Amino acid sequence: METNSCLINVKGLCTYFYTDDGIVKAVDGVNLKIRRGETLGVVGESGCGKSVTALSIMRLIPAPPGRITRGEILYGENKEKSVDLIRLDSRGSKMRNIRGGEIAMIFQEPMISLNPVYTIGDQIIESIMVHQKVTKKEAKEHAIKMLDRVGISDPAQRVDDYPHQLSGGMRQRAIIAMALSCHPNLLIADEPTTALDVTVQAQVLELMKELQQEFGMAIMMITHNLGVIAETSDNVAVMYLGKIMEYASAHDLFHHPMHPYLQALLKSIPSIVGKGERLAMIKGTVPDPLSILRGCLFAPRCLEIKKICQSEEEPPVIEVEKGHQVKCWLYA
Amino acid sequence: MISYIIRRILYVIPLLLAVSIVCFVIIQLPPGDFLTAIESQLKSQAGLSEEESRKMVDEMRKTYGLDKSMPVQYLIWIKNIVTKGDFGYSFGYRKPAQEVIWERLKWTMIIALSAHLISTLVGLLIGIYSATHQYSLGDHLSTFLAFIGLSFPEFFTALVIMYLLVFRFRVPHVGGLSSPEYVLATWNWAKFVDFLQHFWIPVVISGVAGVARNMRVMRANLLDVFRSQYVITARAKGLKERIVLYKHAVVNALHPIIAYQGVALPYIVQGTMVTAIVLNLPTTGPAFYDALVFQDTLLAGSFLLMVTVVLVIGNLLSDLILAWIDPRIRYD
């Protein structure tokens, strides 16, 4: 895997939040690579740092209290032309052109992701006109075309609707239309289907896959739902407390889960075959993010714990197969 | 939208009728009337016997219709208002009540609207500054000053300002709206300058509390809106921070400020009564106070009615403005 073949290459990213109660290491040494046209799934429980990773790439971490303390986020496939997003001024024109224009992001809650006082058309047009030199009329035509493309019926009428006049699924489609209106290279989707009901979830995922092929963009799919990962992703990063525990292709991840955390997660998914068994669950709860843990972060909840796991030494990242990495003492 | 406006205006009519009844009843509640005072004056100062003075006063009661029952008096009063615009006779000023009100209402409205406009604009700007510079020195300073501005009673501020002007800055004349030598002069440049020298005092005093209030409300709301998803979406589109702030955040933080406009007008008209007495201003406040003390029934009732009309109109306007900026209200 050459550096220059990656659209985005995150190296050793650390994003900390300096709160009154202490430092929260929301993202602590994360490495990620996404190639053009590929989908990377990022999966983990609430508070594991998935969204903070995404917001760090977008340079939208609220500061204060948040700050990117270390690492690189290299954007661009060409080694000479790639830029480290961390070194850009987060409010400067260079970052603003990338944000929304080349890297777009959609969020979890379609009900509150659109500004209630403007029509969806206004909001899509605004997005187009920031990044492209077009007249308002052309932008509106493009907006209608995008709405049509994401499967909103009667788009010429709907373009003048306010967000509260659309259903949740429709709003998420409108948000996708808005995010893709500038043909970004990378779409970061932060739990895009979590707030939708199941049938709509499937439709939206299907739509995203279609659009990915059409526009040739990469997707970073953030979710806590392993089903969504299986459905969409090429590669997967499993996160726990700000660190990546396992990194593999989706196929390897589901067929040969390595990390005890991932194994436990997969066991805790209810299955429709097999009868009357008690559902397995992971013992304990996610530790307080303010608590200072050393060594393996999962050790207190791990069923396969060894002596070394309780030491203060951090487990190494082991490449067990090509492209399949796991951060666990069991494989050292 | 038009049907919404018409519906809102139609609601106002029964409301005003009900309010006028309440006003009239409240004014009539204390025992006796203006003529009771005249009666004792006739006895003590004109030296008439008890029988003579009662006879004279009874005749006057008949002339002014004060011998009739309360509902009949109300009907006559309201009939004259609706058909002739006649608010009845002020015993205290010995002229029609509407004349007393109009000549004072002009100055009241000029002072109230200026104070209101300034307090809204300045309050909003400081509030926006405070919210965008949360926990900075400027934020702490304006929060502290707002606290002081809200806690000082207005009449006390008025006394302090008058004291400082007279004893520190040796201003020859304070109070009222012009110096004695200009009272009868026709309007010219010198009179205008003199007027401004008097005018700013009530405006600043009535404005200070409003500035403090608007600033606090705006700061709190804007901070809330800043955390909302659609503001993050707007940033993720790559918009300039200025556009995110004014186009997406401020518009959604204005609701309580606009809703307050409806109540603010009568509050400023009537609420600065004590200040107006301290500063000896020719506004409605002191006249209303006198009318209540001397049981100048119809004048007091007319004042009350006037204030409620201002309140109702203010509320109507603020509702219409809200419906104009927020589509969700229009479709209710």
UniProtKB/TrEMBL annotation, chain B:
It is found in: Cell membrane. Keywords: Cell membrane, Membrane, Transmembrane, Transmembrane helix, Transport. GO terms for cellular component: plasma membrane. It holds the Pfam family BPD_transp_1_N. The chain crosses the membrane at residues 9-29, 107-132, 144-169, 189-212, 257-279, 299-325. It comes from Aerophobetes bacterium. Residues 105-317 form the ABC transmembrane type-1 domain. PROSITE patterns: ABC_TM1. The lineage of its organism: Bacteria, Candidatus Aerophobota. One of its GO terms (biological process) is transmembrane transport. This is ABC transporter permease. It is a multi-pass membrane protein. Belongs to the binding-protein-dependent transport system permease family. Its main location: membrane. InterPro entries: BPD_transp_1_N, MetI-like, MetI-like_sf.
